[in-house]
Each structure stands twice: as C-alpha cells, then as structure tokens.
C-alpha cells in the first residue's frame, strides 16, 4: 500500500514538473500530458520468479530463458503501470483532460498485477519475433477460483486476453474474444498458452491461442481474438 | 398459472428454507433431465447465511448510481419475485452439504481459496457488484461498479476483468436456472470502454436449454442504456451436485 501511495505522489509531482515548463524529452512528440511517472522511476518487473512459483513454472521459465540466449526469443517484462510511451498512445486517444484523473489514476494499476505473490496471476510471456508468436507460462493462484478447486473461467479469459494481446505491438484494444473451454484447469496448476498472429488486415489483428498442460497432453482451451490498433489521429468521442 | 405458482414458492423460499415439499412442485422444464426445480435451487443456493460475509450488500464505496439502482431492485425482490443472490468469498459457501462430481476438482477445502470476483478485499478497489435473479424468466441483472485495481487501458476497465464478471453472472444464472455449472464456451464483443468508478449494468438471459447445455446471453450497458459496453454469450454444461452425506 505504501508503494502505491508513493507512486501516486511521484506521478503528481511529475505532472507538476511538466506544467512548470520542465524541459521536454526528445521522445515527447505529442502534446499530451504525462500522467505517469517519468522513465527515471524504477518499476518492478513482475515477470520474474518469486517464491510462490511452483517447480513446474520455474523449470519452464529456465528452459525459455535458455532459448533467449541466442536472441531468437525474448522475455517480455511486465509492470503494474504502463510505460509512459504506452500510456501516451492511449491517453491522447481516450482521456478527457477536463476530468480530474490524477487521484483516480494514482491508485489504478494493471488488473493482473494487483495481487500479492502467488495469490493471483503469476505469469511470464516469451516472444518469438520471427515467428510472430508468444508463449505465456501461467500459474493461477488461490484467489482465482470459480467452481471450488478449479480456475475461474473468467480468470482464464483474462489470461487469454493478455496472451493474445502480447502478439500485438503498440496500443491495441480487444474487440472480440471467443473461447472454447475443453477441460477445467485445477487451481494452482501451471498451464502454457501458445498464441500467434494469424492475419493482419489494416488495423485489425486476428489471433488465436491454445492452452495446454505443461506436458502438453491436456488441451484445456482454444481461443480466437480480434484486436484493433488504436489510431492516434482519432479520438474515441 | 404455473408461473404464479412458482413466484409464490420463490418468495417463500427467499424468506426461509422450505421443507421437502419443494420437490412436489412440477418441474419448470420437462425436457430437462435435471430434476431440481428453479425454486429449490434458489432456496438452496440463496440462503443468506450468517457465518460467511455476504458481499452483495452496499458499502461506503458504492456511488449514488449503484445505490439507487440497488434499491430499485431491492424493492422488486419484495413485490416482483426477484431474488438478490448472496455473494460469498468462495462458491463453496453456496453449496454446503453438496459435493462436486467426481474427478472434477479437489474436494479438499482450502480456506485461503477465493472466488475470483471477490478476490480484492478493499472496498471500492476491485469488483463491487450485486446480482439479482428473476426465476420466472430465468434472467439476471448484475450491477457493477469497477474500482481502480481493474484497470486495463488507463482510466478504463480491463476487458478481461469484465469478461470474468460476465462469466460469473452467467455462472450464477445458469446454476439457478438449471444447474448449469461449467463454462464450455464464452464469446465477448467489446463495444465501448467502461470508465473506472462508473456503473455498468449486465443483463443476462437464458436463451435456450438443450442437450445438457444452457445458452446464455449478456448485454452490458450504461444505466440509461445509451451506451453498450459489450455483448457476450456463453454456454454452460449442466451438472448435478449430489448431497454429501459424509459432511452433514
């Protein structure tokens, strides 16, 4: 809780700094206000092992880190709040400057990173840039329950949304998701979500994924999704 | 005539548990292989227990929109047969004395396991919601006020968190309408973003029950229905819960 308070304060200071005519960074090409902390603030990367990670998850993580050594794969870092560049792409598009967002946004954090270690979503995504696909290792914790003992369908849907989104780049929004659940996922187990970009049509990205057990013997679900690239020229109103 | 009989039974059930007489009422859907009538499911599932905290009640974080619509529906529970579905930290609290079909899940009770949509304890930070169910029409309304921890696009609700609440509302509606238990298919089309802290209303209907499957639809919109946030559909598998004599 202390962390989110100080982060909130930092973002308000950063905002004031910009209003008082602080020098603009060369990356700041758009007139939008920075609502989040500057790059100098160190964000915790949540896509790294912690004590709640099971043996299965750690083993898979190590296997994929090895694959990263030759550059064919990369591990995607994951923060509670979006990077300033990502935020700017969205803020020019959506936020009405008249609203008093600072207080509200200083508390806001990415949904899936709001849990203490091991209780919610433990996940890491590895990207293969050549093949335009990603692998997401996911361990769902005790706060993600649906039917007693099983992972909530909605928690799986959330992860599928994130896994599919990881195959895209830049500011995108989910338009559609279609998920077929084949078998229930036991709570606190590890699953592997393989996602890929199937087709790109202008601003439309068509993606698909499957969710399997670590030994690949069980297919838990299959899904498709349509994501849309946000057009920085247009506002949503 | 049949419908009025049901409504009367539901109102009775809401105020206290009925003895075995509940099973004497005719089944609502004769084609269904699932014997429990809607009203017996409601009376079993919706008992407002004093042991576990019921989250489907107003708290200090509820905005005026959420509160006023809540009170409107609370009135309807007294007059029109609507039922306010209690909401506990775990679904295990709804099915006390019953066990899940074999091979489905770990039947061991872990006290720290929580229902996903009740995972964020701090009032107003995550999911604030309450579901009202209308047994005679097999439909529900969920009033949803999302907090800052549900953020996706800055300032707005994460699509996945909305999908989860729709799935959850489907799941309660499916169960009360005919023991729909597991999601087999879920489809969602996002239309507009929901600003964090505002009120969204989920309207869920059971469209069809066929071959052991329930088909549900959901439209999520603003209170004045001027903005549609998302449309979703879901298919649930009906599964009968057996009484767990070992635990009673």
Produce a short descriptive summary.
Chain A: One of its GO terms (biological process) is regulation of mitochondrial membrane permeability involved in apoptotic process. The complex is a heterodimer of chains A (237) and B (248). With 237 residues, chain A is an alpha+beta fold.
Structural overview:
The complex is a heterodimer of chains A (237) and B (248). Chain A starts with a helix and ends in an 8-residue tail after the last strand. Chain A has five helices and seven strands. Chain A has helices spanning 2-19, 55-68, 84-94, 101-107, 153-165, and strands at residues 73-76, 121-128, 133-140, 172-181, 190-201, 204-213, 219-229. Chain A has a single domain (2-32, 46-80, 109-229), classed as Thiol Ester Dehydrase, Chain A (Roll), CATH 3.10.129. In chain A, 27% of the residues lie in helices and 27% in strands. A seven-stranded antiparallel β-sheet of chain A has the order 1-2-3-5-6-7-4, with helices on both faces. Chain B has one domain (38-45, 52-98, 113-238): Thiol Ester Dehydrase, Chain A. Chain B is built from four helices and nine strands; from the N terminus they run H-H-H-E-E-E-E-H-E-E-E-E-E. In chain B, the strands form two sheets. A seven-stranded antiparallel β-sheet of chain B has the order 1-3-4-6-7-8-5, sandwiched between helices. A two-stranded antiparallel ribbon of chain B has the order 2-9. In chain B, a hairpin with a 2-residue loop joins strand 6 (200-210) and strand 7. In chain B, helix 1 runs parallel beside helix 2 (38-45) and helix 2 crosses helix 4 (159-178). Chain B is globular. The interface between A and B is large, with 53 and 55 residues.
Task: Throw out a few tags for this protein.
heterodimer; A: 237 residues; alpha+beta; Thiol Ester Dehydrase, Chain A; seven-stranded antiparallel β-sheet; 7 strands; 27% helix; globular; disordered N terminus; B: 248 residues; two-stranded antiparallel ribbon; 26% strand
């Amino acid at each position: 809780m202390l962390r989110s308070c100080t982060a909130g304060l930092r973002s308000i200071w950063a905002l004031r700094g910009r209003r008082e005519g602080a020098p603009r960074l060369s990356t700041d090409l758009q007139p939008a206000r920075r609502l989040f902390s500057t790059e100098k603030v160190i964000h915790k990367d949540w896509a790294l092992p912690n004590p709640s990670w099971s043996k299965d998850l750690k083993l898979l993580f190590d296997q994929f880190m090895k694959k990263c050594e030759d550059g064919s794969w990369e591990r995607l870092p994951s923060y509670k709040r979006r990077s300033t560049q990502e935020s700017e792409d969205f803020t020019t598009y959506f936020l009405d400057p008249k609203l008093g967002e600072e207080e509200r946004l200083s508390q806001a954090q990415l949904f899936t990173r709001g849990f203490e270690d091991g209780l919610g979503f433990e996940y890491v995504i590895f990207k293969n840039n050549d093949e335009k696909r990603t692998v997401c290792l996911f361990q769902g914790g005790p706060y993600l329950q649906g039917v007693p003992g099983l992972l909530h369908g909605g928690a799986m849907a959330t992860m599928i949304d994130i896994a599919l989104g990881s195959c895209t780049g830049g500011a995108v929004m989910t338009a559609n998701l279609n998920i077929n659940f084949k078998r229930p996922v036991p709570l606190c187990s590890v699953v592997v979500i393989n996602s890929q970009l199937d087709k790109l049509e202008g601003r439309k990205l068509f993606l698909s994924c499957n969710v399997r057990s670590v030994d690949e013997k069980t297919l838990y679900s299959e899904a498709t999704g349509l994501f849309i690239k946000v057009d920085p020229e247009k506002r949503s109103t | 005539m049949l419908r009025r009989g049901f409504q009367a039974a539901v109102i009775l059930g809401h105020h206290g548990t009925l003895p075995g007489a509940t099973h004497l009422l005719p089944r609502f859907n004769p084609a269904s292989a699932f014997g429990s009538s809607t009203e017996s499911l409601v009376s079993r599932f919706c008992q407002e227990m004093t042991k576990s905290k019921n989250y489907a009640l107003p708290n200090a974080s509820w905005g005026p929109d959420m509160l006023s619509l809540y009170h409107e529906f609370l009135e309807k529970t007294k007059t029109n047969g609507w039922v306010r579905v209690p909401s506990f930290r775990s679904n295990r609290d709804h099915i006390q004395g019953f066990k899940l079909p074999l091979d489905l899940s770990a039947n061991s009770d872990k006290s720290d396991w929580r229902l996903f949509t009740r995972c964020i304890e701090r009032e107003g930070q995550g999911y604030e919601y309450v579901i009202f169910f209308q047994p005679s029409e097999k439909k529900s309304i969920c009033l949803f006020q999302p907090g800052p921890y549900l953020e996706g696009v800055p300032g707005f609700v994460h699509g996945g968190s909305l999908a989860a609440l729709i799935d959850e509302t489907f799941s309660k509606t499916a169960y009360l309408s005919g023991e729909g238990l597991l999601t087999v298919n879920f489809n969602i089309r996002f239309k507009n973003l929901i600003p964090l802290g505002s009120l969204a209303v989920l309207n869920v209907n059971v469209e069809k029950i066929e071959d052991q499957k329930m088909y549900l639809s959901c439209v999520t919109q603003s209170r004045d229905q001027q903005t549609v946030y998302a449309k979703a559909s879901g298919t649930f598998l009906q599964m009968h819960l057996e009484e767990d004599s070992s635990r009673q």
